[in-house]
Amino acid sequence: MRIIVQAISLFLFSLFLFFATYKLPDWFPADIYLRLDPLLSLNAIFAAREIIGRSLWALVTVVATLFIGRFFCAYVCPMGVSIDFLDPLLFKRKKQKSLTIESSLRKTKYFLLIVFIMAAITGLSLAFLMDPIALLTRFYTFFLYPLAITLINLFLDLMRPLFKGLGWVSLSHLHIFQPVFYMSAITLLIFGGIIALNRIAPRFWCRYLCPLGAMLSLISPLGIFKRKVSEECNECMKCQKNCPMGAIPEDPTKTRLRECFQCRTCVKVCPQNAITFPASLSIGGEYSKIDLSRRGFIYSVAGGLGVGFLATQTPFTPLQGKHDLIRPPGAIPETEFLRTCIRCGECMKSCLTNTLQPCLWESGFSGLWTPKMDLRLAPCDQNCNVCGKVCPTQAIRSVSLEEKNHAKVGTAILLKEKCLVWAQNKICLICDEICPYNAIVFRPVEGFRRPFVIASKCNGCGFCEQRCPVLGESAIVVVPDGEIRLKEGSYVTEAKKLQLEFKADPGDDKFILEESGFKVESGKKEEKKPQPQKPKGFLQ
């Protein structure tokens, strides 16, 4: 039964992540697993210093744990399911021994939990580093998803001759867009390290390191279902040897309630059928406080507060502001964004054009893994607003398409020394033709037609930067100057207040006519005049 529930949970996790894509319905909670994570929710609320609506979904997990016990780790958590499924495949021939320092190792997850909570209180979000659901979401996004697309495209390439022979025109030309992400190798190494720890002990990650498990273990002894051993027990110790969490001490009739996650493995292996999990309302007896030393507790508190302070003093902090960091449209102001973003990678997975990429040190240590727009790689599609829909903490606001297109992320600027028109007098109209808002126009300058950017019409979508034919760095780049980032309120209203105009390209360059003196007054019959000679640099 447990394996079936685990398989369903992992399937749903994968399915929800698959549906986190273009044209996601507003009612579909593709980020539901992240919303149900109490550690991420508490971290976001503490760091942002306010109640976040979507984070309140985590109360479902908390209430269920209070009622049932620590079932989430055994049945629902996709990281735990992945560990259980991969463990027999990779380590089935390895005899696993109990650790001599197990009691000390078990405290590690509690110390980590304290560090993350204290850091969040200072405004630094750190839970993403070790939260299991955030880790697995990034692994799926940065590694498994691109790998799956690669394999599908390879299959389509192999089958293409057959499809053509059968007359299946659509399949013979089908090719799925291939996403690529920075830091894919790092993500794979982190996930591989978590799985490799099983070589030391079963569910090593869950036993000793997982801060989410530590949080749930604080309330799990209050659950009504508890392990009970009858007098038929002959102390064969099979239950202790097979317990994946090491929740059974030397006395098999006892149970470490904090570590027991209701897997019922002990029930299956007991030859005497002496173990049951009846409902019990008692919370005394085996319920005991965590055996944390005062020194360890103080070190953890000081460590969390210290990391929160040092995050603004790292060697990478001077890099902040040195990079033209473009955040997704709808991203709240930077300080609140860094506090609220849980670095799950859901927005990057859902991005239609693959422009969203993870940050490394561009925004300092506090900005690690946060999303940025790489507009040289891909532009931001103006008909897509899915990144805000899938953000579990609303670090990227969920807004309508009209609001999203008025959420100016930056302004394009021309690097004249690289531009083919400005620097080499060559004919190039690509940036003008591709701009969705007619924000790039050509005007005569000293006998030559030169491109200019109208800042009040540019919302920073990046089509010009991505399509620029210049090799290497584009000759036209988007910088965060003029960006609009609101925590609340309307982007349309703010854009109008700033006298910005984001309208679809009408298809004519009337700025060229007006600025170059070629304007034709409406309502008057046009007089035939000799055609002016075209400026140099263009075909006659």
Instruction: Name the structural class.
Output: mainly alpha
Total number of strands = 8
CATH class division of the domain at 409-520 and 531-540: Alpha Beta
Strand order of the largest sheet: 1-2
> What is the CATH architecture term of the domain at 409-520 and 531-540?
2-Layer Sandwich
What is the averaged pLDDT score?
Answer: 88
Q: Roughly how many Å is the radius of gyration?
A: 29 Å
Helix content range: 40-55%
- Count of DSSP H/I helices: 25
The low-confidence runs, each spanning 5 or more residues with pLDDT under 50, are 510-529
**CATH topology grouping of the domain at 409-520 and 531-540:** Alpha-Beta Plaits
Question: Which range does the strand content fall in?
Answer: 5-15%
What is the molecular shape? elongated
Largest sheet composition: 2 strands, antiparallel
- The termini sit apart by 79 Å
Q: Secondary-structure map with pairings?
A:
Layout: H1 2-19, H2 32-35, H3 38-48, H4 58-68, H5 72-76, H6 78-91, H7 102-106, H8 108-121, H9 132-166, H10 169-172, H11 184-196, H12 204-209, H13 211-217, E1 228-229, H14 238-242, H15 265-269, E2 275-276, H16 294-310, H17 334-340, H18 346-350, E3 356-358, E4 371-373, H19 386-389, H20 401-406, E5 411-414, H21 420-424, H22 430-434, E6 440-445, E7 448-453, H23 463-467, E8 476-479, H24 491-497, H25 510-515
Antiparallel strand pairs: 1-2, 3-4, 5-8, 6-7
Helix pairs in contact: 3-8, 8-13, 8-16, 9-11
